[in-house]
Amino acid sequence: MNIGKISNEFLKNQIISKLTIKRKDVLLGPGIGRDCSIVDFGDELCIISSDPITGASSQMGYIGVHICCNDIVTTGAEVVGVTLTILAPPDARAVDIEQVVTDAERAALELGIDILGGHTEVTDAVSRMVLCLTAIGKVKKEKVISFANAQPGDDIVVTKKAGMEGTAILAHDREELLLRHFSQELIEKAKGFIKFISVMKEGRFASSFGVHGMHDATEGGVLGAIWEISEAMGKGVEIDVSKIPIAAETAAICRFFGIDPLRLISSGCMVIVVPEGKKLVELLNQNGVEAVVVGKVIDGTDKWLLTEEGRIPLEAPDADHLYKALNFSEKLP
Question: Which candidate, 253, 290, 242, 90, places its Cα nearest to that of 165?
């Protein structure tokens, strides 16, 4: 099988199809395009989401806490905290494990949440450090946000830029290779994209504005996230790819590795479905969050991209292009 997140077809047919909801207080279970599960706790709903960190090696704890909490924010919920499981290979140093925890706590302090517990283990079952995180949040029942409310004609908005998380990971983890071809200034700027992987700010503004769904663009990139929200809505989409913003540093690094920035892991880039996209964009821009309308929800279930070559189908996400870049080997003269 390919390295990375398994295909949505396999997930749907071989995994989700074997799971059933057995308790009445579980309101939302696993599904394509669903970031979180929802459990009824009376006046409030408990929102739960889990994520692994396998692609990055630098700042794993920091990245993990942010991306796990991003999922909670997409429901309009307040994040309470995360649990953190660390699986370290036998050759890991004590300082490496300590750094993961230090970085995770730094992210928790930024977000005003707690590390609730977890597990730490050295095991020969892994060849590199693996993190598994679960975030927990809460929201009043009347405040929860769901793609079930999406309607044809709704705008699709994206925040920040595509591929920023993947760009930062590659700038850190493939720095030696990239410095043979790019300036130190470009690499440092690319590394700095890690500061923008949280969607907490736009999530709060969008929740108060009133939206029909939010989804953080993680593995599979922006196009993968858009495909998943189409599945979650049960409705089609039409996207103008020329409107999706891409940083110059991301474009340059992706060209070097021969990968698509729109298929590169993109935590920090939130995809939002909203009736009045231009007004939401104005609100976000006024509050320091870059955002743009890139398309619309349409009748039916077809997924279309408007490109220079014309109107083409949006394909289901495959393995994230980050893994292709991490495995890239340059042939030196």
Answer: 253
**Number of CB atoms found within 10 A of residue 285's CB:** 12
Element housing 58 (H / E): none
User: What was the pLDDT predicted at 30?
Assistant: 85
Q: How far apart are CA 93 and CA 95, in angstroms?
A: 5
Q: What is the mean pLDDT of each run of 10 residues along the chain (333 residues)?
A: 76 88 91 84 94 82 93 94 96 94 96 96 94 96 90 97 95 94 97 94 94 93 95 95 97 97 95 97 97 97 94 91 87 53
The 78-88 sheet, strands edge to edge: 26-28, 37-41, 44-53, 130-140, 78-88, 114-122
Asked if 217 and 270 touch (Cβ cutoff 8 Å), the reply is yes
Element of type H or E holding 136: strand 130-140
Q: CA 198, CA 68: separation in Å to the nearest integer?
A: 10
* Per-residue pLDDT, 331: 61
**At a CB cut-off of 8 Å and minimum separation 6, what does 17 contact?**
none
Domains along the sequence of the chain with CATH: 8-143 (3.30.1330.10), 147-326 (3.90.650.10)
Which residues touch 288 (CB under 8 Å, ≥6 apart)? 201
Answering whether pTM is above 0.85, one says yes
pLDDT score at 12: 85
Cα 47 from Cα 6, distance rounded (Å): 24
